[in-house]
């Protein structure tokens, strides 16, 4: 027995009307979500919980079923705001029924509604708490699955890259040997033009070699096969720029280089040259869209414990929709691009205790390489 026997008896007498009222509201708000007999069974239990004031809310049997109900909501992809709106519809349905009674005292009805509201609030908070825990667990599981899929994808790329590099390296080794023999067997009578041709071929050979090194960064052997050596930033840059100098001349690009500080960088030289070559080539590709005054600037300087190299061009900005994912595999804005270049660059820089980033706005794109020089000095 409770002090609200009369009011509770009235509610139970109109149980069907209250539940029916609630169902109309929830189904109109979210059509297709709440159909079938299961809903009728659960709403009946919930009504008994709300009106069962003689049983403390914490001890009511419905609380033991709250985890199952929350799990069912998550499995059926029911949004959290449905739970909150449902609470509002229950309160509204009971208000409407109680408001039709002329026999009940308004003051007592208001006090009763406060107690019923407390029970509804308690159940809602319990279900919401479990719902959020289950949702977070589900999201974590999905994230792990995505990471695994991403790793599997990279492993596949690695196997393909290693296979391609192996097949290409064999004939390249032969080509390099024959180029060396040709140069050794040439005489002064053969003319300077042939020497220039040989220089071009050897430069292109080195460029291909760097591309293969980049591909190997996705294989299991990766770039860790290459030893670490000490080079100055100028030594690092000059060898790459000399290879790309014909392109700067042919495409009428003004190149300026400012290396304000010189440091010894302990790096994998060929791998990092691949990064620099990729960045410069991407910049030159962007400058093909510029009609006049094509410019590229390379700056090197020390900032705190870091040596920084910046590559800036005045080409168009990188499209905003791909900027956040630019270093991920297969992301590119080039029609015939593979989307692997910058992903390879990121891997190489990480292996060399460095980082790569960029800023791109209209008529100014800057890629930045960072090398930790404090650890280099200690090493």
Automatic annotation (TrEMBL):
Transmembrane segments: none annotated. One of its GO terms (molecular function) is protein histidine kinase activity. Its EC number is 2.7.13.3. It comes from the Bacteria. SMART domains: HATPase_c, HisKA. The keyword Kinase applies. It catalyses: ATP + protein L-histidine = ADP + protein N-phospho-L-histidine. It is an enzyme of class 2 (transferase). Residues 163-375 form the Histidine kinase domain. InterPro entries: HATPase_dom, His_kinase_dom, HisK_dim/P_dom, Sensor_HK_Regulatory. The keyword Hydrolase does not apply. This is histidine kinase.
């Amino acid at each position: 027995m409770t002090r609200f026997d009369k009011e509770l008896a009235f509610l139970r007498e109109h149980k069907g009307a209250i539940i029916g009222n609630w169902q109309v509201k929830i189904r109109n708000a979210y059509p297709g979500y709440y159909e079938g007999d299961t809903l009728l069974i659960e709403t009946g239990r919930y009504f008994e919980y709300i009106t069962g004031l003689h049983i403390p809310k914490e001890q009511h049997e419905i609380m033991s079923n709250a985890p199952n109900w929350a799990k069912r909501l998550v499995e059926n992809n029911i949004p959290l705001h449905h739970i909150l709106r449902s609470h509002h519809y229950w309160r509204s349905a009971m208000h409407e029924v109680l408001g039709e009674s002329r026999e009940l005292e308004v003051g007592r009805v208001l006090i009763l509604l406060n107690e019923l509201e407390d029970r509804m609030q308690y159940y809602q908070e319990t279900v919401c708490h479990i719902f959020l825990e289950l949702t977070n667990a589900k999201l974590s599981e999905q994230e792990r699955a995505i990471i695994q899929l991403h790793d599997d994808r990279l492993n596949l790329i690695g196997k393909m890259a290693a296979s391609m590099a192996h097949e290409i390296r064999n004939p390249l080794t032969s080509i390099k040997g024959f180029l060396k023999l040709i140069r050794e067997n040439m005489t002064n009578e053969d003319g300077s033009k042939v020497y220039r041709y040989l220089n071009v071929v050897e430069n292109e050979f080195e460029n291909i070699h760097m591309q293969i090194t980049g591909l190997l960064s996705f294989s299991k052997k990766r770039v860790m096969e290459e030893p670490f050596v000490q080079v100055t930033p100028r030594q690092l840059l000059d060898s790459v720029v000399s290879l790309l100098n014909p392109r700067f001349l042919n495409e009428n690009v003004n190149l300026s280089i400012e290396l304000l500080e010189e440091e010894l960088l302990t790096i994998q030289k060929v791998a990092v040259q691949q990064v620099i070559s990729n960045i410069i080539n991407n910049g030159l590709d962007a400058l093909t869209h510029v009609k006049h005054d094509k410019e590229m600037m390379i700056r090197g300087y020390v900032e705190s414990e870091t040596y920084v190299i910046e590559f800036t061009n005045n080409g168009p900005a990188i499209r905003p929709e791909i900027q956040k994912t630019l270093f991920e595999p297969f992301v590119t804005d080039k029609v015939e691009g593979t989307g692997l270049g910058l992903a390879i660059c990121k891997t190489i820089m990480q292996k060399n205790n460095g980082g790569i980033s960029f800023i791109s706005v209209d008529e100014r794109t800057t890629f930045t390489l960072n090398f930790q020089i404090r650890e280099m000095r200690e090493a």
